[in-house]
Specification:
elongated; 143 residues; Thrombin, subunit H; four-stranded antiparallel sheet; Chitinase A, domain 3
């Protein structure tokens, strides 16, 4: 049986959650996630924990902040003036707003504060700085 390493195709079922049990993402054995290890489809910090495993193995991993996703960066928090927003946007605290980047890609920012000066937006990854629990079952490994 093949051990997982970069370049292997892996089929897996998983649950990614916060320590309090709040589920963030999952894939089931009926509808597994398929990926090429190292292709960037999931966080390298999550890939790292199941490298070396084989088909049929499973595990539960407590992942400290900063491993699966970066720690929050204050340079990714901006206050944008009201004139920079579409008048149709009615922001709420904690809401995620999608933005188009000049490259054609999109990104999201969380609304931290709303004032006369504008909206304070956090462009850090939504899971930045959070501890996570990653439960994974390896279904198939092709290397």
């Amino acid at each position: 049986m093949n051990k997982i390493f970069p370049g292997c195709r892996v089929k897996l079922a998983f649950v990614l959650s916060l320590p309090d049990g709040t589920e963030i993402d999952s894939a089931t054995t009926e509808e597994p996630m398929e990926l090429l290890v190292g292709d960037g489809s999931i966080s390298p910090g999550l890939e790292f924990v199941f490298q070396g495993m084989r088909a049929g193995e499973s595990g539960r991993f407590d992942i400290p902040p900063g491993i699966a996703f970066p720690v929050p960066d204050e340079d990714k928090v901006f206050v944008l003036p009201p004139e920079d927003f579409d008048s149709e946007i009615v922001p709420e605290l904690g809401q995620f707003i999608e933005f188009d980047l000049p490259s054609g890609e999109t990104t999201v920012a969380r609304v931290l504060n709303i004032s006369e000066e504008g909206m304070e937006l956090d462009f850090n990854h939504p899971l930045a700085g959070l501890p996570l629990v990653f439960e994974v079952q390896i279904l198939d490994v092709q290397c």
